[in-house]
Amino acid sequence: MLKTICYISDSRSNESIESIKKIYKKAKENNLINNITGILIFHNGNFLQVLEGLEENVDKTFDKIRFDTRHRNIIKVININVEERIFEDYNFGFTVVKSSSEFEELNEYLNWLKNADHQVANKLITMVENFIKTVG
């Protein structure tokens, strides 16, 4: 069964670009191995991440994140079994959104998703849009 978890968290410290790149690289490797798709957004010291995949893999990945010392105040905002992935086609899977052009690309993808009128997708879209509103 497929599952989606979306969480937000605060960074424990001011992450450097190099540190974010290391987080991204490790997350991408792990998620590729575990067939997890989604997005990871870091902005103003906060993370928003969507994880999608087989229930067991998503739960294990989220448990690792919960104990990762780079996070604090982790709030799981969506934890639901789904019939299909939402971000499977976005940049061929897992990505870190880190520039204004990538935010624009993400917005285009979210607008495309809105046309599907999928309830879980619409919740995720709203959350991601609210998270990135301050990005210019």
Automatic annotation (TrEMBL):
UniProt-listed InterPro entries: Acylphosphatase-like_dom_sf, BLUF_domain
Occurrences of domain BLUF (ranges): 2-93
SMART domains xrefs: BLUF
Superkingdom of this protein's organism: Bacteria
A Pfam family the protein falls into: BLUF
Gene Ontology molecular function: blue light photoreceptor activity; FAD binding
Listed name of the protein: FAD-dependent sensor of blue light
